Amino acid sequence: MNGDVGWWGLAASLVLVVVALVVSLVRGLRLERDLVVAAVRAVAQLVAVGYVLLVILDEDAPLVLAFAWVALMIAIAATTVGRRAPEVPDVTRLTAAAMAASSTVALGVAFGLGVFPLEARVVVPVGGMIIGNALGATVVVARRVVAELRDKRLDVEARLALGQPSAEAARPFLREALRTALIPQIESTKAVGLIALPGTMTGLILAGVPPVDAVRVQAAVMFLILGSVAINVVVVGLGVSRSMFTDDHRLRR
Amino acid sequence: MSENAGVAPLFELDGVRVDGDDGEPILHDLTASIPSGLTVVLGPSGSGKSTMLRLCNRFVVPAAGTVRFRGDDVAGLDPLTHRRRVGMVFQRPTMFDGTVFENLLVAAPELDRDRAGVLLERVALDPELLDRAGEVISGGEAQRATVARALATDPDVLLLDEPTSALDPASTRQLEQTITDLVAGGLGVVWVTHELEQVERIAPDHRIVLVDGRPADAHETDHYLHAEPLDHAADEHPDHHTRDSSGGPS
Lengths: 253, 250
Known about the structure:
The structure holds two protein chains of two kinds. Chain A is mostly helical.
């Protein structure tokens, strides 16, 4: 491949991190520790993942290993969401369920309709991109739903007091939270190619694939991501909103 | 509805206990009866007035005891149907986004403009206000509009949780007049307040004084009614998300 980065290349790319370290030291920003930890962790994680992928992506390896890897990514993502949205009740389980559903749909479409060949080397990165992109939006929607319903408690209770079911009373606030969570994804889909060259395409071009071929792959990946992020956000938003109410349509504290 | 609906009091609370977030009871073993007409629930801040009101529309569920509406256990009623028979008006006027008419439509989606106009007239508002945005009308108008909105579900009774605490004196008088007119028209009203002067003005048919989550005895009632209320300062800044879990402002 033309995009080969040797160990020496990897070390060389750390030069900028070293520059940042020096700036931090000189200016007394105290970012050194975080920078070093982040860089070391990234290298360690990626190297470890690289060796695992070596096994999973081996042509003789059973395909089920690739799906197991996707399941593991979902578990890690759900745990991360749980940590980043601690005030949201039961969000880890909800996220795991939503991500399992949205990845199944997205991978089902990708392979069922023949967008990509059903191979481990496709399952793992496509699954990773879907889950990775859904993660941020999921944190946003979960936290927004809780914040909206708490901030607008008076409004929500005024609606409940009129005999509205909780799903209806929450709807204006749920809508707001869903918009907030999805807009970044929609905006970046709109700006794609004009401002940023997205990851898949960048990777393929770096690896020497002709740009037009890279574009086709990128577009397919983007649609899968947009669709699955939307599914994920809606499922989590509805689930969190529901968990904020009792069965007899009272807003929980 | 039970067969004794005609004669049963509006609400009966029987040995009701409600616990707060901290496990401390907000109401203990409260037994009270609220007949038809205008009933005022009085008491110092934190005495459990709002919680008692919220038991009546099932915003709060008792940990022990029973709440009955016209003889029927509220726990056995469909909460949504029940809430349409038992309207509630809150401390602050909470107009939803949109016009006054759209606000009324939230309560009664099938409402036409003529009937919406009649609802506004019942609360002494000009039907011209129907097309005004809820956020541009005055606080007093907004609070009367929320009364009209509560009336749109055609309730038997209105629960008022210190409805004038965010209003100026003139708007307060207007709302008091509106409510006493509605009571004269046959509507049941349960009015939570801490203002003794207000109680004088609206001349309720019945009075319940709460102290520490239970009905006050004769001595405490006398003390409360004739001493300067201690909790004015606290109640003028209705920030009350501190105590009860299942309850609300107390």
